[in-house]
């Protein structure tokens, strides 16, 4: 019996993984910016939960991060520019 060595290839290229890592950092930053704003006392309402950072900036970063991730997946790893 003769066994042929199987060459293993990665599905994505180095550029794809770098861009995917950047996307994960951007998504994580968006979720970190979205957190907080709670109150120590459950009977006291904290208006800080409705500021610009939590309502506009953080969700925009998450959506941009997902867009970057989709770009990294669809980019052809064989094309060299």
What does this structure look like?
- By secondary structure, the chain is mainly α.
- The protein has one domain.
- It has two helices and no strands.
- It has helices at 14-34, 52-74.
Q: What is the approximate shape? A: elongated
Radius of gyration from CA coordinates:
21 Å
Strand content: under 5%
Let me know the largest β-sheet.
none
The poorly predicted ranges are none
Structural class comes to: mainly alpha
Query: How many angstroms separate the termini?
Result: 43 Å
Question: What value does the average pLDDT take?
Answer: 88
> How are helices and strands ordered from N to C?
HH
Oligomer: single chain
Determine the number of helices (DSSP H or I, runs of at least 4 residues): 2
Give a summary of the structure in a few sentences.
With 81 residues, the chain is mostly helical.
Key features of this structure:
81 residues; single chain; mainly alpha; 54% helix
Walk me through the topology:
Elements (H helix, E strand, L loop, with lengths): L13 H21 L17 H23 L7
